[in-house]
Known about the structure:
By secondary structure, the chain is α+β, with helices and mostly antiparallel strands. The protein has twelve helices and seven strands.
Amino acid sequence: MINLELPKKLQVGANQARQVATQIFRPVSRKYDLAEHEYPVELDTLRAMMEAMEDAGQGAAGATMGSGGSPGRKEPKKGVINGGNMKSLLNIIETCWGDVGLTLSIPRQGLGNSAIAAVANDEQAERFGRVWASMAITEPEFGSDSAAVSATARLDGDEYVLNGTKIFITSGARADHIVVWATLDKSKGRAAIKSFVVPREHPGVSVDRLEHKLGIRASDTAQITFTDCRIPKENLLGDPEVRVDKGFAGAMQTFDNTRPLVAGMAVGCARAALEEIRTLLEEAGMEIDYDRPATSQPAAVAKYLELEADWEAAYLLTLQAAWMADNKMPNTKEASMCKAKAGRAGSAITLGAVELAGTLGYSEHSFLEKWARDSKILDIFEGTQQIQQLVIARRVLDLNSSQLK
Length: 405
């Protein structure tokens, strides 16, 4: 029988992440929401804590998302595994309960780090193990269709030469490295798309602008142009060969790791909204009774129970996707399922909480309006709702991208 109780070793890390959310993130959440693009200096304290724990051999102990395990590396432990992906997920749920934008700004915990963990070989994992990497996929000409990448990478001797413009790069101006998706040969389609690790402070790399956004304002979102940017050929992540028979599989491993994390962000933010609205309902004298049908309780309570059930479904789907990744099970379908469900549920729950709170939910006296703004991006980046449904349909129907578009 399945056991949904979390192991104690994971609970310890999640508790540490909750302390970071409570003591560091929540107190400054509104400050950096109102001061977009101002660097959160409080993160320097968090960075020092992380480095001290790592030097002591404790790892990044729960305060951050951590890094997922690579499907390409062998796992010495036998039996059921609760490893890097599950730890990362639980930690990110807690820190996003504090603030999504600040979570996305945690040093050395960018989405690019998860991409490195997903496809890097052992030497690369060691070499890039202590960098802070953002991830550059989207371009001005396309949004969710990652196969439409037009940025180019040309091999010239022992170096690749990168050219192209990337937009909507989370932590693009703050991270010290960027994982850039580019094509080795546009005529060969998806199979030629590879990812490259590029230092941000590097000849040919230009941060063009920072975006002003609806939510996650504590996080910087940049446009970056690569002009004849030369990097060592060893900075291509994973296999440099273009294998048409494998198609987009190598690149998709990145999403198999990162989509559950983004789902976890939505789960954490939505849980914050649920807890807040429950407190407000109880203060208004409304008792939430799980032993009575929702239809026999006040309308506001019935709505809360509906939102809570939606959250539980998203949470369990997300746990499943991360657990499968840790246990080296193919999880492309499950990663998209949890991302689709959590992204949609996160928006519904945070907006539902705003409605239930009335004027209080719409004002800055509460975080409810902020959480509603923050949660919207979690239904968009790492693949929109429509893209996730397309991926799921292809897996369920056993069709490839040319058969189902």
